[in-house]
Structure formats: C-alpha cells, structure tokens
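Support reply, case 0932

Customer input (verbatim):
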Amino acid sequence: MFSIGLTGGIGSGKTKVADWLAEWGAAVIDTDQISHELTAPGGAAIEPLRAAFGADAIAPDGAMDRDWMRARAFADPAARRRLESVLHPLIGQAVLDQAERVRGRYLVLVVPLLVESGRWRERVDRICVVDCDPETQVRRVQARSGLTRSTIERIMSAQASRAERLAAADDVIVNDDATDLDALRRRVFQLHQAWCDHASRPADGRTTHG
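Our regenerated output:
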C-alpha cells in the first residue's frame, strides 16, 4: 500500500492532520498511540522497562511513570537510548502487524521521531512534515499540557531541528501561528488528493502547501 510518513515537532498539529486523513479514507497508524498502549498497565513494554530502569520507572497503577521517565530521558542521553532500545522494536513490530490488517486509500504512519530515528525512511514512500515555528510550538504545548517552558524546550532539543525535518520532507504542511483551522484543513485536503493520485500513479517530487 502506498504509504506516507507523517511527522512534525511537538505542538505542530500532526494529530489533527492525521484525524482528517483518517476521516477522508486513509488508513492511519499512530506510533504514539502504540507507545501508550505498550506502556499502559499490563502493556508489553512494562516488564522490559522495569528490567531496564528499575521499579521506580513503573507508577503505582502499573503503567510507565511518564513524569519519572521524561525527567531522566531528556536529562541523560544514555537513558533515552535505553528507553528507545526497549520501545522502538516493540513499536516497529506493532506497526508491521497493524499494517497487514488495515485497509484504506493509502497508509499514513504517524511517527513523531521519524527523522530522528533514521529507521522509517525506507518504510514509507513519502515523508510529510507538519511545520511551524518553535515559538508557536512552545505556546501550543503550554496551552494544552501545562508543561513549563523549560520542559518543553528540553523535549524540543531532543527532537530534530526544524531545518532537519524540512530537509527530509517530500511534502510540507504549514501550520504556523497565522494558520487558522479552515486554512489548515484546505492544505491537508490538497495533499490528500495528491496522495490518492500517487497511490495509483506514483510520482516523485516535493510539494509544499502553505
């Protein structure tokens, strides 16, 4: 199935984009959602995480303690790599399993760390970046999560830079502070139509909607 790797920095709006694409008939697999399932109580990652990080990594309800893990993963690159070594193979296998079952006009893999991981480029036909400036990212994440600016900036610093994401993109959806919801929806729908064409008549080249 023709496939799109959808990515973007924290607060870029990729979840909204993915929701619309699913509404219009794309098959969407969200690696963040898979990660949440793996790290929920009873999830397949819980015991490997306990073995890798100790009992403190697991909250009283049996889920991964996200605050505890966030504090360590963003402060210590070695801890982040250890976390990734547990989660990434499990996520990758879950994506493969789901991709065999889903049906749609084309496949969208929502991968926040697509550029950073280096392992998704060969799995998708095109990479689409939802793009916005860093200050807009911070403002959006603060509004929805209540995280402090310093915490958000640490998260952003662990992600690819805006320039690195854009350099990897085949398609770009601009979702900056000047973009309202109607404009964003129009931009996404234009690309959706193009991808439907690509699904039956593959083409190369970068398309920018903004």
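We compared this against your earlier run and they match. Two observations from our side: The chain is about 55% helix and 10% strand. Strands lie at 3-7, 27-30, 107-110, 126-131, 171-174, 207-209. Please reopen the case if you see a mismatch on your end.
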